[in-house]
From TrEMBL:
Protein name: hydroxymethylglutaryl-CoA lyase
GO terms assigned for molecular function: hydroxymethylglutaryl-CoA lyase activity; metal ion binding
GO term, biological process aspect, one: L-leucine catabolic process
Catalysed reactions, semicolon-separated: (3S)-3-hydroxy-3-methylglutaryl-CoA = acetoacetate + acetyl-CoA
Domain of life, per lineage: Bacteria
Similarity field: Belongs to the HMG-CoA lyase family.
Domain Pyruvate carboxyltransferase as annotated: residue spans: 6-272
Upper lineage: Bacteria, Pseudomonadati, Pseudomonadota, Gammaproteobacteria, Alteromonadales
Gene3D superfamilies: Aldolase class I (3.20.20.70)
Pathway named in the protein's UniProt entry: Metabolic intermediate metabolism; (S)-3-hydroxy-3-methylglutaryl-CoA degradation; acetoacetate from (S)-3-hydroxy-3-methylglutaryl-CoA: step 1/1
Keyword tags: Lyase, Metal-binding
Pfam families for the chain: HMGL-like (PF00682)
InterPro entries: Aldolase_TIM, HMG_CoA_lyase_AS, HMGL, PYR_CT
Length: 297
């Protein structure tokens, strides 16, 4: 039944690769296609941001235009403003995502404006998306702390989440951008946000900097949340959050969920191989313990 099904939003090609050394477009395409082959149904494929800010994502249009698409798979892209939305539309992104923050300082450093200014910028984008029938996801960063401000009030996380939801985002992804949260704190944060946005419209986006992401997810699962963002091989981090490691590794998440009896639709072996190929390309160690174990067999 639906309670036992979990939806994973794969971040490797975007949140992952935005913070690794640039890889050739062909390698990104191969990664995305292999992720879909492994059973991922929601794949963030790139972002339409300033290439001066994030050069690693400058070829996102080529990536989206050249991938072989599978039916039933969503290929999404980050769009901070109308310009980004228009580029995403032209590249035929299946859906887009706007990204705000619960921290003023992070908002300034990440998208060069205050929280309030970012909301103003999102309004025309939301209108365009509605006119073109493009679903919009919303991210809130720094939900368990900020690299510049430290503690962030959960009331502020709930406030920003509710604004994005009421603007028309179909789902709000709560980002522990720097991976500093711990289980009780994560649970309390999710509970507070769920008073303002329905639980089935919420996703958790946990980075694994302090190795807490799986524990945090476990602490939140029985509140009813069923959507998680993760990154194959634990790729990436955040260019504006020094010391942040990648998202939780998708392989580690899938292994835990399958072990608990949840369905994900993902073939773990194929997923591990997809991660291994991009690791080889990047000449980096695998950020997934599960993949490391599986591939050593
Ligand atoms: P700005 O400098 O204030 O923007 O940056 P602007 O409107 O003044 O434009 C400046 C220049 O950028 C102009 O070019 C624009 O054309 C261009 P110029 O005239 O100088 O040649 N520009 C664009 N180019 C391409 N695509 C666009 C675009 N918009 C303007 N969409 C801006 C504001 C938002 C653009 C900039 O701050 C930016 O690109 N920030 C992106 C930062 C980013 O990508 N961060 C990582 C993603 S967020 C994240 O990882 C967190 C998340 O994973 C959740 C979590 O973990 O918490 C989602
Ligand atoms: Mg992130």
């Amino acid at each position: 039944d639906a309670k036992d099904r979990v939806s994973i939003f794969e971040m490797g090609a975007r949140d992952g690769l935005q913070n690794e050394v640039a890889v050739p477009t062909a390698a990104k395409i191969a990664l995305i296609e292999s992720l879909a082959d492994a059973g991922l149904k929601r794949i963030e494929a790139g972002s339409f941001v300033s290439p001066k800010w994030v050069p690693q994502m400058a070829d996102s249009a080529d990536v989206l235009k050249q991938i072989q698409r599978q039916s039933g798979v969503v290929y999404s892209a980050l769009t901070p403003n109308v310009k980004g939305f228009e580029l995403a539309l032209d590249a035929k992104a299946s859906e887009v995502a706007i990204f705000g923050a619960a921290s003023q300082s992070f908002s300034q450093r990440n998208i060069n404006c205050s929280i309030e200014e970012s909301i103003e910028r999102f309004i025309p984008l939301m209108e365009l998306a509605k006119a073109h029938n493009i679903p919009v996801r919303g991210y809130v960063s720094c939900v368990l702390g900020c690299p510049y401000e430290g503690e962030i009030a959960v009331s502020e996380v709930a406030r920003v989440s509710e604004i994005l939801y009421k603007m028309g985002c179909y789902e709000i992804s709560l980002g522990d951008t720097i991976g500093i949260g711990t289980p009780q704190k994560a649970r309390r944060m999710l509970q507070t946000v769920a008073e303002r946005v329905p639980m089935d419209k919420l996703a958790l986006h946990f980075h694994d900097t302090y190795g807490q992401a799986l524990a945090n997810i476990l602490a939140c699962l029985n509140l009813g949340v069923r959507v998680f963002d993760s990154s194959v091989a634990g790729l990436g981090g955040c260019p504006y959050a020094k010391g942040a490691s990648g998202n939780l590794a998708t392989e580690d998440l899938v292994y835990m969920l399958h072990g608990m009896g949840f369905e994900t639709g993902i073939d773990l072996q194929k997923l591990a191989l997809a991660g291994q190929a991009i690791n080889t390309q990047l000449n980096r160690n695998n950020g997934s313990k599960v993949a490391t174990a599986l591939l050593a067999k």
